[in-house]
Amino acid sequence: MPASAPPFDRLDRLDLPVLAQHLGLVEEIEQYLAGLPAPERLPLLPLPAVEPDRDGGPYGSTRQAWNFGYPLPRRTLLDRLVRRPARPVSITVAGHLRLTSRYLAEAGWIQGAMWDTAGRVCLLGAQTAVLAHGYGTAYTVRRARTQVMEVLHATGRPAASPDLWNDRPGRRQAEVHALLLRAEARAESLGI
Fold it and tell me: Which one, out of 35, 102, 130, 170, has a CA that is 20 to 30 A from the CA of 16?
């Protein structure tokens, strides 16, 4: 079927769909597509059964950074001009203890040293790292260590310092996290 000449009376008003229709392109494409074999339909397989994760989602969760939910320390223009670090992010004592536990979980735990070449840290090393990343002040860390000591004494585990408690033979990382969790709950209850 020969195509009639397209209307070229004004090129600035050229309508592409009308032009394609006049050239017979639409019919040609439709005939080509009709001649193709139908795509093979694959049967749908059922999804594997997945146990819900601890947050209740059936598909698990994504890994989050240890400081998730807390703003990153940002240097202001004045900080950059005078070449000083950013002001620390203000956090509560409970927040510091939470971040300490998260950092310890991500970096790994050791005894007998603040940190090692693999990046693992002890309790004091984790608190120092949280402070060094710009979260809280030295005063926040001292108050957090006081809360840890209070929990140790209240639970009948007196120690001269949290560091000596951390380094006792037979201590496990889970015990350190449990201590930090209890100290965090105590700080929350005190509103600090």
Answer: 35
Backbone Cα Rg of the chain: 32
3-state secondary structure of 70: coil
pLDDT digits (tens, 9 = 90+) for 61-120: 677 899 999 999 999 999 999 999 899 999 999 999 999 999 999 999 999 999 999 999
d(CA 162, CA 185): 17
Scanning the structure block, which residue is given the tokens 């019919």? 27
**Mean pLDDT confidence for 118-135:** 95
Cβ atoms 86, 73 nearer than 8 A: yes
Q: What is the pLDDT of residue 41?
A: 79
Phi, psi of 135 (to 5 degrees): -110, 110
State the angle between helix axes of 25-35 and 16-23 in degrees (0 to 180), rounded to the nearest 10: 70
User: DSSP string covering 120-138, please?
Assistant: -B-HHHHHHHHHHTTBS-H
How many alpha carbons fall within 13 Å on the CB side of residue 23? 10
CA distance 162 to 110: 14
First CA to last CA distance, the chain: 85
